[in-house]
Amino acid sequence: MLLIETAIFYLLLGGAVAFTVYLRSKSANPIEVGLQTTGACLFWPLHVPILLSETAKLDDAPEQKGLTPQQQDTLSAAIAQVETELDAALDGLDGWAEDVLSSEQHRLEELRVAWKAQADRIRQIDKLLAAPSVRSDSLAEVSAEVESVRHSETTRRENIRQLSSLRNRMHADLVGTLAWVRELVTMIHLAKFSGAPAARAEELVAQIAAAVQGLSEVSSWREEERVPAAAHELV
């Protein structure tokens, strides 16, 4: 009698596992689905670990999706597009003006790194500006009548305004640099197929490599602006 009860209990569990396998089956072949569900019913202890591992992957999917926007946002897509177009233009220098690559390779790599670093700084500022405390502040509301708090709150809001202004400046410079490089890339293709001398390609590649200077300047413009302000306060 105990054997019969054990068999019934075993088959009930097997039926549940088989039903789960049936629901998750991706096959359109009825025979294949039937074999899978029958095997799952009879040998369900072997299928349970597989089902649990699949469930774990589904649970991890939202977390993985949460990591992708930073890699696939509009800035990253724009940078990737320009890099692809730039690579195609540089590859076309072979046999025509490839010597310029050896002299400008270092600055071209710096430019690529600068693009990504600038985009990352913009994301960090966006994250700060999106914080709830930037839009509403409970401390400021409950301490509105305290003069020292009002002064601190005014200064804080001014700092946030400057941070937003800095973000917009960095974004404009990054996008402008990307657009400028794309323009120069088309000029390289035009120079090559119109029979221009190699010196023209060297000039254009040098201009692309020099674009890194603009991104370096925008990172330090706020520091340069603070020096006169600090000196004025001391006076």
In summary, what is this structure?
The chain has 235 residues and is an all-alpha fold.
What's the structural blueprint in terms of helices and strands?
Blueprint: H1 2-24, H2 30-42, H3 44-71, H4 74-91, H5 99-129, H6 132-135, H7 138-142, H8 147-193, H9 198-234
Structure description:
With 235 residues, the chain is mainly α. It folds into 2 domains: 2-69, no CATH class; 73-134 and 164-234, no CATH class. The chain contains 9 helices and no strands. Helix 5 packs parallel to helix 9.
Biggest beta sheet summary: none
**In what range is the share of β-strand residues?**
under 5%
Helical proportion, percent range: over 70%
Principal-axis shape equals flat
Domain count? 2
Summarize model confidence as the mean pLDDT: 75
What kind of assembly state do the chains in view correspond to?
single chain
Q: What is the gyration radius calculated from CA atoms?
A: 31 Å
**Low-confidence runs (pLDDT<50, min 5 residues)?**
61-71, 221-235
Number of separate helices: 9
Q: How many beta-strand segments?
A: 0
Question: Structural class, from helix and strand content?
Answer: mainly alpha
Q: Helices and strands, in N-to-C order?
A: HHHHHHHHH
- The span between the termini is 100 Å
